[in-house]
Write a structure and sequence with these properties.
251 residues; alpha+beta; 8 strands; disordered N terminus
Length: 251
Amino acid sequence: MLVLGRAHAAPRNRSAAREPLLRTPPRLEPRPRDRTQRPTAHRLRSYGSRDLNSRVPPPYPRWNVSDLLDPSSAHTSTIRCVARGELDALSAEAVAAERRRAHRLLHPSPEAAVQRFFLALEPGTYVRPHRHSEAHKWELFVVLRGRLDLLVFAADGELRERLVLSPDATTAVEIPPGIFHAYVCREPGTIGFEVKQGAYIPTGAHDFAAWAPPERSPGAAAFERWMRDAEPAARAPHGSDAALLEEGPSD
């Protein structure tokens, strides 16, 4: 008989023809663990962890400011830090002050090239519209707490723009030189941070708006009330203390 295909020899023992599908692996003895060395990967994962690897140094070194300065330089080695409690105290000063505002200077002297200070304001404080006529006297104001309005005026007393400033809205403004502006405080505990070019020069009479009464004058409170609700295109009322008093307080 002709059979096409591969010839198979019949096994002598059927049980020997079936090989087990799974073989038991040889038993290996565990290697002794060397506890004097730690894998590099473990050292990286546990960097800075006291629980896993207390011998690893902290990721950031402790340094002193004086170590960073050139010993021959005249720079100070003190970093000025302002804590929340200092701002709270500044607001308390503003509440007790007659002008309803207080400031805390960070620059060392009036001659400093950059003037910077914290300003705390309370509702009712009167900031007379003014400008900085010097060509380099820009003003940067950043609101840290509370809310206030920035009022921008034309030279003739027309209100051109009104901006709401708060940490949740417009946070910072930069006012160019020569622009008449004023602030109206809207919330108790309002604090801002102001930066402008030095040196300090007291605001002259020509830089205060002639159509707005001076601070502590009889018409100052009435003018401040007008600024609270004035809309753009409104014009400052009359421009004299007597006229403001004749109108009486506005609600």
